[in-house]
Structure formats: C-alpha cells, structure tokens
Amino acid sequence: MKIIRTAAELPRADSVGLVPTMGAFHEGHLSLFRAARDENDLVVVSLFVNPAQFAPGEDPDRYPRDEERDAALADEAGVDVLFVPSAEEIYPRGFQTWVDVEELGSILEGEHRPGHFRGVATVCLKLFNLVRPDRAYFGQKDAQQAAVIRRMTRDLAVPVEIRVCPTVRDEEGLALSSRNAYLSPEEREAALALPKALEAGDRSLLNGLPVDYSEEADFEPRVLAAAVRVGRTHMVDNVVLEGERP
Prior knowledge:
The chain is of the alpha/beta class. It is built from 8 helices and 9 strands.
C-alpha cells in the first residue's frame, strides 16, 4: 500500500473505488474497504479530519487520530492507496467555494449541527474531483450523509456511483463509530439504549438520554433515525424500516 499526501501523486486505473474517511478505523471502515476491493481494480482510502464539517462548539482537535494504526489496518484490508492530504491540500489559500445541499442538509443532523453537511458535501466533491473514482463507499449508519452525497452527485451530474454498505455493530448491538472511543464504560452502557430503542421503535427505551431527534426519514431506503447525547458525545444511528429495500 502506498501512502500519499498530494493530489499530484494519485494514480489512475480502469476502475477506482474511493472510501472517504476521517480515520480511527474500525470494522465498519474495514467492511467498506473490502467492498471496494471486491469491485474495483484500485482502492483509494482518504484519511482527512475535515475541519469544515465540525459544527460550532465541536473540536476537530479532539477527534481520535492514529495514522500508523490506520495505515496498518488499511494495508491488511487490501487498500492500494491511503491518501492523507493536509488541510492546505484540500482547502488552499483563498478557498471560498462551498456545496450546500439545501433541504436534505438542513434537517435532522443539519438542524442540530449547522454547517455540518456543507462541509461533508464540499470535501466529498473535492475528493471525487481529485481521485476520480467510479464508485464511492459509505456506511448505512450515517444514512443522512449518504442521502446528501447521493443527492449532490445527482444534482451536479458527478460521474460516481454511490454505494451504501450495511451498518456494522458490536456484539451488543452498538453501531461502530470512531466517536465510540470518547465513551467511558458507563457511557457506553448507557449508549446501548439507542439501538434498542430504534429496533423496538420505542423512544421511551432511550432511558432519559438527551435526544436531538428521533423520527422517520425518507432516505433511500426509508429509515427510523435518531441522535442522542451521551456525556459529551453525539451519537447517531438508524434502522431500515420494515419492507424497505436494505
């Protein structure tokens, strides 16, 4: 596996799969890497903690980082290229162009984290333009993110297929997330109420956790989505509604 840090070094191939990430890899990321490996000649994983997608009051510097560990995991999963750009590579001096998916980006997460999806859409479009992938891979856990990116690619005629892979959970049902590293053992135990409440469709099972939202969302597929606060950690999850396409 090659680790590259500038767009000029990015290779080309007949079919390219891109997995955009912010690092702190776990089995959910690895499942995306494997899906990309199965379907493409070249697999590129981007590792960039995108400052533009952190909402006011959120601290990008607090996000977990371990490039050496991430590189080892990516290499083991068959990734060809780990693209680790600097902020200056993605947002050069004078940068002032942003992508705003207005309706989808303003509800649910967008309502509670202003500017988040503007940052997500902009960095993904930038990565698509640099890497030129045939397919890009996202997790179902972040269903709204996938919906925003899918809408953006349709609206702007971006020639990339958006592939959404199933949520990966631990043995107790908690959706894997890099942010889980923030949780204390007691907070992790409290967080298990989120997947249980979603699976049962019963908000009362959240056991008093502060709720940002809990509602059905007309994505592809339609989901029951929720976000809660566990200590200082913002946690999102969703389940595909019965009868909807997985």
